[in-house]
Design goal:
CATH superfamily of the largest domain: P-loop containing nucleotide triphosphate hydrolases
Strand order of the largest sheet: 4-5-8-3-9
Strand content: 5-15%
Structural class: alpha/beta
Order of helices and strands: EHEHEHEHHEHEEEHHEHEHHEHHHH
CATH topology of the largest domain: Rossmann fold
Number of strands: 11
CATH class of the largest domain: Alpha Beta
Oligomer: single chain
Number of domains: 3
Radius of gyration: 31 Å
Largest sheet: 5 strands, parallel
Bound molecules: adenosine-5'-triphosphate, magnesium ion
Number of helices: 15
CATH architecture of the largest domain: 3-Layer(aba) Sandwich
Helix content: 40-55%
Distance between the termini: 76 Å
Shape: elongated
């Protein structure tokens, strides 16, 4: 099975729009079966993946497939609130708990009671909130700000992160005990470039979906466009693909998307990029001992250092070529006339020899 339809996903979804999950690549299919096995368990789940890989979509899917499917699904972005507000947002507050708390309010945990709480960007949770979250998970009750009465809660937690939480633990930005509590069940969503078999099925899915939205009868991708989609690295993953298709449909002619309609930006550094075009010629980096030798010279504070280095280059090359000016010129990729002039200047070549070779 590779296409799944949520029965009432349209009402549920806000930031996530797809009601269908496309999982065609063998890696994705394997992942899907893991998600399906994990979903009915009550285990807290951590979803790890780059931006736009579908973390929220998968969180909703887990919820749908669990026994909690008819109960609320509450999605909260931990990075979206000022530090001072996170606590009352998560755990709620009583009337008068702080200036401006004119009414009592239930927090997200209570709102999700019976269902699933999705904590997105969990790595952004301030450290003092991490302590409180851990306590809630252990004791299965929340205490609203300004109250002393604990409220029992029955919530399954699904958290997501696009940063490596293990690194955050090492750096002291994430509590190790909370990390292990969340790490019980983990789902790693691979970036789109590592599941190329999903690219075209997703592209076709978005073409169809956006055609409906835009009121077009239908549109298609030219074979060259398909090749371009397959060759791209997708740093923004599925969201980037969806945006690229949306834009292409707006600008394409006769409802056929051509490569020129697809605006794809590759943000990876030069050198690691595999392009449709040949890589530009690049000089290799200087070998480490050359750099070390130069550094040693810089430390000696030698007068006219640059001239000295240039002389050394010419002299060494000339000797390496057994005194042959033509070959020296080829080795250094400069003209023989220049070689001769330099050799003369540094006294490596007597004037009488200058006419030779
Ligand atoms: N397997 C999929 N099939 C169809 N659509 C998908 C799939 N995965 C993701 N999408 C779509 O791609 C977009 C990005 O997905 P989602 O918001 O879940 O990603 P995310 O990992 O939470 O991203 P971010 O890290 O930026 O929050 C959404 O519009 C979603 O509907
Ligand atoms: Mg998200």
């Amino acid at each position: 099975m590779s296409l799944l339809t949520h029965p009432n996903a349209r009402e549920l979804t806000k930031s996530v729009r797809a009601t269908v999950l496309v999982f065609k690549d063998p890696r994705s299919q394997e992942l899907l079966s893991r998600i399906e096995r994990l979903a009915p368990s009550e285990a807290n789940t951590l979803i790890i993946g780059e931006t736009g890989t579908g973390k929220e979509l998968v969180a909703r899917h887990i919820h749908q497939l669990s026994r909690r499917g008819r109960e609320p699904f509450v999605a909260v972005n931990c990075g979206a609130f000022a530090e001072s507000l996170v606590e009352s947002e998560l755990f709620g507050h009583e009337k008068g708990a702080f200036t401006g708390a004119t009414n009592a309010k239930a927090g997200w945990f209570e709102a999700a009671n019976g269902g699933t709480l999705f904590l997105d960007e969990i790595g952004d949770l301030p450290l003092n909130m991490q302590v409180k979250l851990l306590r809630v998970l252990q004791e299965r009750e929340v205490v609203r700000l300004g109250s002393r009465t604990p409220v029992p809660i029955n919530v399954r937690l699904v958290a997501a992160t696009n940063v490596n939480l293990a690194d955050a633990v090492v750096a002291g930005n994430f509590r190790e005990d909370l990390f292990y509590r969340l790490h019980v069940a983990t789902i790693r969503l691979p970036p789109l470039r590592e599941r190329p078999g999903d690219i075209l099925p997703l592209a076709e899915f978005f073409v169809e979906e956006h055609c409906q939205r835009l009121g077009y009868s239908r549109a298609s991708l030219s074979p060259e466009s398909e090749r371009k989609l397959l060759a791209h690295s997708w740093p923004g993953n599925i969201r980037e693909l969806e945006n690229a298709i949306h834009h292409a449909l707006l600008v394409c002619r006769q409802q056929v998307v051509q490569p020129g309609d697809l605006h794809l930006v590759d943000m990876r550094p030069m050198g690691v990029r595999v392009e449709e075009h040949a890589l530009p010629l690049r000089l290799p980096a200087a070998p480490p001992d050359l750099e070390a030798a130069l550094t040693a010279l810089f430390e000696q504070n030698i007068p006219e250092l640059y001239e000295h280095i240039e002389e050394t280059v010419f002299r060494t090359a000339y000797r390496f070529c057994h005194g042959n000016q033509l070959q020296t010129g080829r080795l250094l990729n400069i003209s023989r006339n220049i070689v001769r002039a330099r050799l003369e200047k540094i006294g490596e070549l007597r004037r009488s020899d200058a006419a030779q070779i």
